[in-house]
């Protein structure tokens, strides 16, 4: 018998469900949103300055 078989006996295998997927999506969203907003904001300001100055 495998040494860890005694610990996992009677415990069903953990599988991700929709809540785990939603948590992953929200975590990625919260990590990626600030840099994306900064990049798009800088691009918007640059284009605005180019349009005003030219």
Task: Write a compact overview of the structure shown.
The chain crosses the membrane at residues 21-50. Keywords: Membrane, Transmembrane, Transmembrane helix. The protein is mainly α.
Give an overview in words:
The protein is mostly helical and 54 residues long. It has 2 helices and no strands.
- State Rg: 24 Å
Low-pLDDT parts are none
Distance between the termini: 77 Å
> Helix tally?
2
Largest sheet: none
Order of helices and strands: HH
SS strand fraction: under 5%
What does the overall shape look like?
rod-shaped
What is the average of the pLDDT values?
86
**Overall SS class:** mainly alpha
Question: Care to count the β-strands?
Answer: 0
Residue share in helices?
A: over 70%
The multimeric state of the shown protein is single chain
Keywords: Membrane, Transmembrane, Transmembrane helix
Name the features.
mainly alpha, transmembrane, membrane, 0% strand, 54 residues, transmembrane helix
Write the layout of secondary structure elements.
Elements: H1 5-8, H2 18-53
């Amino acid at each position: 018998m495998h040494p860890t078989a005694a610990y996992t006996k009677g415990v069903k295998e953990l599988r991700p469900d929709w809540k785990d997927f939603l948590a992953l999506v929200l975590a990625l969203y919260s990590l990626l949103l600030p840099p994306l907003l900064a990049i798009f904001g800088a691009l918007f300001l640059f284009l605005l300055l180019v349009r005003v100055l030219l």
